[in-house]
Amino acid sequence: MTQAELRLCSLLLQEHFGDIVEKVGNSLLRTGPRPLRLLVGDTGLLPDQVKKALCVLIQHNLVRYEVQLRGPVEYEAQSERILRILRYPRYIYTAKTLYGDPGELLVEELLLHGHLPMSCAVARVADRLTETMEDGKTMDYTEVSGTFARLADTHFIQRCPIIPEIPRSARVPSPPAPALAIAEKDMYTVPRLSLVGKGKRRHSCDEEEEGEHKAKKQKQEGRSSETPPDDGIYWQVNLERFHQHFRDQALVSAVANRMDQVCGSYLHFHSGTEPFPLQFPIFPIQISSEVVRTMLRMSEVTTASGASHTQPLSSNEIFRSLPAGYNIGKQVLDQYLTLLADDPLEFVGKSGDSGGGTYTVSILCRNFVFPGQEQFGSRCARIFRLLLRKKHLEQKQVEDFAMIPAKEAKDMLYRMLSENLVSLQEIPKTPDHAPSRTFYLYTVNVMAAARMLLHRCYKSVANLMERRQHEMRENKRLLEKSQRVEAILASMQATGAEEAQLHEVEEMITGPEQQQLENLKRNVSKIDASENQVDETIFVLESFIESTVKRP
């Protein structure tokens, strides 16, 4: 684990869970798997504090435990899972895009709490949606539970592993820590619950205090509420399914950028003796990308997250699943599939001839795009692509093939060499490695370049987070004052105060302070947007590295 990753993980844990959890998590990240006794000694915290921090981390799947054959239970931090916290806003926004407000809030609640029972998640989301509605309107539980079921059917959420049932007759000593497991067939099975009810609005402060006193009194008297019908069945967000969706969207976008206009021109001019009566101009709507999107949608649940290709689909199945608005004939579809299969980038591959031909979508990343075009310019990008294609070239060959003057080519190669984007390999003719009798070949170590860029992205995100924290610390007093004024205004509006009174309270924040607040909000918004953009680059690089390692 690099220092940049360790620093970013520590910042994420501190921002989302506080100093104590960050201290425990940082200790596990630095030292590896450790038992509770060594964790207490290393962190200098009280045993109860370490236990509670571990409970929080395990609840959010950021730490896993393992029972050793001889010895205590050891805890291990999941650094990859901690780094996924950075992608939480993207998960939530994707759920909102696909399933609306109920889907957004369901995913947000599950990410916020780690895992929840279905009944609890539905009730929380219904209450939150009711708060945003007009007076007199409420959100029904059945609508939210329907969205929950759709999220489970498309595998965006899944059940958490549970403790297997042990027969009462079997006398087995209980292990130091339970081993959790779940059958694959039960992972996405939604329990049949009759959730009847509507969302509730928050009460006034007096009613809330009265409700809290009632709850405490009931707890003291031992009167607990009824056990929920799905007690013991917990759900969590399936992050790999979201990553599969992001990857599919990237594939569709790549096909649209490369193939659509080419396919449209080709079909118009090369469709036999007469052109097909297509309902679009020479450069049509994005049909190639729609074909690939349809294939990915058909196999989104049946394709494993680590698979290199989707499940084979026949041409007839693809034709029947295409959206009705495109009006694509079977013959036109076959030509599009043929062009996609013949493309050098191999977005689509043909795996058989049954059913009009069977096709798969290749999920592996096949190419590495030059990452420093803005920093180094288009000529460096040309040299980089040339080295990718030719593998090994001398400096003179680079000058000739790239058609760049010798002085400029030499300067560009050395700049990229200093940034580790290209590497230099020596091939001596004699054992003494004399420079006059040695070939110096430039090449691109793609994996090393990708890992270097990934390291820089982690460092960039950590810098952005520290900058945002600095901005918040510098303006802490002003933010607290703004929050107090907003709270006073809200309470006065609830009691029906006059406009003059409200205006007088608003003037507690002066003009310069208001300008400072606006500048702060603008700067924090830019930092948040930059974090999301860097995370998109991180996802592309991680996907490339993962697919390259798995590539046969």
Explain this structure to me?
- With 552 residues, the chain is mainly alpha-helical.
- The chain has 21 helices and eleven strands.
- It has helices at 3-17, 19-31, 36-43, 47-59, 79-83, 88-113, 118-132, 141-153, 205-221, 239-269, 287-298, 315-321, 330-342, 373-376, 378-390, 395-402, 406-418, 446-474, 476-494, 499-506, 511-550, and strands spanning 34-35, 63-67, 73-77, 116-117, 157-159, 234-237, 313-314, 348-352, 358-361, 423-428, 438-443.
- The protein has a three-stranded antiparallel beta sheet with strand order 1-3-2. Strands 4-6-5 form a three-stranded antiparallel beta sheet. It has a three-stranded antiparallel beta sheet with strand order 7-9-8.
- The longest helix has 40 residues, at 511-550.
- It is globular and about 85 Å long.
- 23% of the residues are buried.
- One of its GO terms (cellular component) is RNA polymerase III complex.
